[in-house]
Amino acid sequence: MWTETYQESPLKGLKPVQSPAHAGDARRLRIVERPFLDLAVLRGNARSPGFASALERALGTAPPVAPNTVAHGHRHLLAWMGPDEWWVQSLAASLPSLEGALRPVLQAESACVVDVSSGYTVLQLLGEHAREVLAKGCPLDLHPRVFGAGQCAQSHYFKAGVMLRALDAGGVEVVVRRSFADYAGRMLLDAAQEFMSPNQRIERE
């Protein structure tokens, strides 16, 4: 009987970008996949003291209440998705199950948490041209004055729905559904051709 669990990135089949000979230095743009993070959707009442304190005990931070903001805990972040909804994400792979950690502390609250780790992957665009590449397919104003570190937003990249999180130094994190990951990866590589070195790939952390 097969007993091993095997995980495979949805971007495994992507080929390197076919950049022109005058393509930019790879250090000016990197696309890095962070697969296999622990991801969950959380619903609850942020005005409930018990709900906020339960999350502080479990994750090290209360849920953000300002729209489109992010709060960081010890090993997880919470991103605002609506007045009673948050995206919870581990900061590293192979951490204990988020759902398993949150369910016991939220039992007394009117709340729910659903593990969605297998349904998404996470990409980071790093370097001075990261936002230019995203702007080719995303309608949001991504200028750092408008979309700065500590903020998040839901939008789309061409035809793929995405959640964006602004990083330090101008980078942006992109969360995309697994079923759209190959498409989004191809569109990112196509949009990035002028900034990437020949045969540069999407890296994997």
TrEMBL record:
Gene3D superfamilies: Heterotetrameric sarcosine oxidase (3.30.70.1520), Probable tRNA modification gtpase trme, domain 1 (3.30.1360.120)
Pfam family, one: SoxG
Keyword terms: Oxidoreductase
Name of protein: Sarcosine oxidase, gamma subunit family
Enzyme Commission number(s): 1.5.3.1
GO molecular-function terms, A-Z: sarcosine oxidase activity
Cited InterPro entries: SoxG, TrmE/GcvT-like
Primary enzyme class: oxidoreductase
Keyword S-adenosyl-L-methionine attributed: no
